[in-house]
Design brief:
- There is one protein chain.
- The chain has about 650 residues and is mainly β.
- The chain folds into 7 domains: about 110 residues, Immunoglobulins (Immunoglobulin-like); about 100 residues, Sandwich (Immunoglobulin-like); about 90 residues, Immunoglobulin-like (Sandwich), CATH 2.60.40; about 90 residues, Immunoglobulins (Immunoglobulin-like); about 100 residues, Sandwich (Immunoglobulin-like); about 80 residues, Sandwich (Immunoglobulin-like), CATH 2.60.40; about 40 residues, no CATH class.
- It is about 10% helix and about 50% strand.
- The chain contains 3 helices and 48 strands.
- The strands form 12 sheets. Strands 2, 4, 7, 8, 9, 10 and 13 form a 7-stranded mixed beta sheet that branches. Strands 17-23-22-19-20 form a 5-stranded mixed beta sheet, with no helix packed on it. A 5-stranded mixed beta sheet has the order 42-48-47-44-45, with no helix packed on it.
- The longest helix is centred in the C-terminal third of the chain and has 30 residues.
- The C terminus is likely disordered.
């Protein structure tokens, strides 16, 4: 029927194409002459006319069935929308356009399909090795069913296909198609794939996808089997000893383990749901049959173990059960037996790591000596003593600590008034560092200063240096006050001393040099041959070091001084220049400078001339005095140099 409808549409379109070609009125339909529409989806048919501005449109099916859609006309275009598409929409649709006395028609064939979901793989039951299983591939919501081809196969095997395509069925409906196969799983099937591929065979229809596939990875299961029990140390033990039994069983998925103990004329007593069963401090009544049962959802399997508890000989570790040892020290563990005159001893760590120590056994005593203990020695140690067919063990736990030194207080620099300083309290080589408690404070500080944690050498399983640091700005009031750092390692369960250490440091506050003065006596300006003292003084606390220098073309020249004073007995021209004083202490330094000027005496001015000059400077005033007294004597009527001098006296 679909082929007949298709030829009808083509013939109709061809006739109207010839008719339209002879007229000016033309009609086009879309999206094509044959439209593949998915059931449940939305499809739109369009009809467009050229040669007429306002044509009249009408739509109908070839069999005059209901349109099953909504028509919308606008200008020279008409649209038929089917939303949602149903089985009733599979028709040949005819669009008719009329303009004045002209009419044109064009047909569109709507073919339906449904292929909206991927195939589904179902199994008749879980995949258990050796048990046949039926695998079904199901493709739901398909139309037309007769066009669907299904292929099903297991990775590595030949595929099977659904029957060949059958003729059209007049009873049109959406349906589900199946394909089955039967196989018996093996371990080789684990991880392989089941593939189901479905194709909707229709080359003349334009839609996607036409092929869908599903892949499922096989998970093969087995019933528990080959259940075994391992026991340590043996199934014959002494009173007070421990026994460890571990149960193993094969199965997929891995089986769960259940332990129980048989009881006379009673149901077994449940013990554990772990693979390992540990029986500690066993007594005579603990003898009996222990059962391990492995279960998964596909079956179960059992294994039994008979245990006999006998009278013991005993072993003791004198320092046990816990020993605190400081890292770097030596440790001697002593193991002693009772109830056996000539036992055989052996030692081992619980985790079967190398035994880092020297064993010495004599009589009923055995010692394990460990020198320079390190972190690798922190473990549980077993002393194993054997006597004939008996063997006993005793455990001792070696717990390590390290707290060898008092806290160390460090400063980022000297304490200088007004300059912030970072003060750090470090507690070196601590273990376990997470248990360390530190307090750090400055005398009289309230509230406590802000502290910051520090950690050094923080590598896993290594000793660490931990501490606190604070920042403060010293004042002169801090002079003589104390910094206190207290560290505690409060591990109550470990016996060692000391668990607390403390360091106190007295503050020594410095002040930079102040009021530094540099002077030249008698003057900064002198003549050749004069003496001069260049002196530097400062008013700082504490006392500063004073350094005098003279600036030269070749650099600074340090001068030898006495208490900050440099003497020049007879100045020369080369003594002129810039002199510098540096006053410094731990708090800093202060520099002052001056310029010394040495004036040159003219070369023609000889010493003899200088003496004559000085003598003349005395004669002139003396002569003046003689004249004065002579005149005074004349005025009185007489002159006596002696009397004149007496009157002056």
């Amino acid at each position: 029927m679909r082929g007949q409808n298709l030829w009808t549409v083509l013939a109709t379109n061809l006739l109207w194409l010839v008719f339209a070609a002879s007229e000016d009125l033309k009609i086009e339909v879309g999206p094509s002459y044959i439209v593949a529409a998915q059931i449940g989806g939305s499809t739109q048919l369009t009809c467009t006319v050229t040669g007429c501005e306002a044509p009249t449109f009408s739509w109908r099916t070839q069999m005059d069935s209901p349109l099953g859609g909504k028509v919308h006309n606008q200008g020279n275009k008409s649209t038929l929308t089917m939303d949602p598409v149903s089985i009733a929409n599979e028709h040949s649709y005819l669009c008719t356009a009329t303009c004045r006395n002209k009419k044109v028609e064009r047909g569109i064939q709507v073919e339906l399909y449904s292929f909206s979901r991927d195939p589904e793989i179902e199994m008749s039951g879980p995949l258990i090795i050796g048990r046949p299983v039926t695998v079904t591939c199901k493709v739901p919501d398909v139309f037309p069913l007769e066009r669907l081809e299904i292929t099903l196969w297991k990775e590595g095997s030949h595929p099977i296909k659904s029957p060949d395509v059958v003729e059209d069925d007049e009873d049109k409906k959406i349906g589900t198609k199946h394909l089955e196969m039967v196989f018996t799983p093996t371990m080789e099937d684990m991880g392989k794939s089941l593939i189901c591929e479905a194709k909707l065979l229709n080359d003349e229809w334009n839609f996607e996808p036409k092929e869908r596939r599903i892949t499922q990875t096989l998970q093969v299961n087995t019933v528990p089997k080959d259940t075994i029990i391992s026991i340590n140390p043996s199934n014959t033990v002494q009173e007070g000893d421990s026994v460890t039994m571990t149960c193993f069983s094969e199965g997929l998925p891995p089986p769960q383990i259940f332990w129980s103990k048989k009881q006379d004329s009673k149901d077994p007593t449940p013990l554990s749901e772990n693979a390992t069963l540990i029986l500690v401090d066993m007594k005579k009544e603990d003898s009996g049959t222990y059962v391990c049962e492995a279960k998964n959802q596909f079956g179960k399997n059992k294994k039994e173990m008979e245990i006999t508890v006998v009278q013991p000989f005993t072993v003791e570790i004198s320092q046990g059960p816990k020993i605190a040892a400081q890292i770097g020290d030596s440790l001697v563990l002593t193991c002693t037996t009772m109830g056996c005159e000539d036992p055989f001893f052996s030692w081992r760590p619980q985790l079967s790591s190398p035994l880092l120590g020297k064993v010495h056994s004599e009589g009923t005593k055995s010692t394990l000596t460990m020198n320079s203990i390190g972190l690798e020695n922190e473990s549980f140690y077993l002393c194993i003593a054997s006597c004939k067919d008996k063997k006993v063990e005793k455990e001792v736990q070696v717990e390590l600590y390290s707290f060898p030194r008092d806290p160390e207080i460090e400063m980022s620099g000297p304490l200088i008034v007004g300059r912030p300083v970072t003060v750090t309290c470090k507690v070196p080589d601590v273990y376990p560092s997470e248990r360390l408690e530190i307090e750090f404070w400055k005398e009289g500080s309230h509230p406590p200063m802000e502290l910051q944690d520090i950690v050094e050498n923080a590598k896993r399983n290594h000793l660490k240096t931990k501490g606190l640091k604070m920042i403060f700005t010293p004042t002169m009031e801090d002079m003589g006050k104390s910094l206190t750092c207290k560290a505690k390692l409060p591990i109550d369960e470990m016996k060692f001393e000391p668990k607390e250490r403390k360091t106190i440091q007295i503050l020594q506050v410095n002040m930079p040099p102040q009021d530094t003065h540099l002077t030249a006596f008698p003057s900064n300006s002198i003549k050749e041959g004069d003496s001069v003292a260049i002196s530097c003084t400062t008013g700082n606390v504490p006392k500063s070091q004073i350094i005098l220098r003279k600036k030269t073309e070749n650099g600074d020249r340090e001068l030898e001084s006495t208490s900050g004073t440099y003497f020049i007995d007879a100045a020369q021209l080369e003594d002129a220049g810039v002199y510098e004083c540096e006053s410094k202490n731990e708090g800093g330094s202060e520099v002052r400078s001056l310029v010394l000027d040495v004036k040159e005496i003219p070369k023609y001015f000889s010493p003899q001339l200088l003496a004559l000059y000085c003598l003349s400077s005395l004669i002139i005033p003396a002569t003046g005095m003689v004249i004065y007294f002579a005149r005074k004597a004349n005025h009185k009527g007489s002159y006596s140099l002696v009397n004149a001098l007496k009157s002056k006296v």
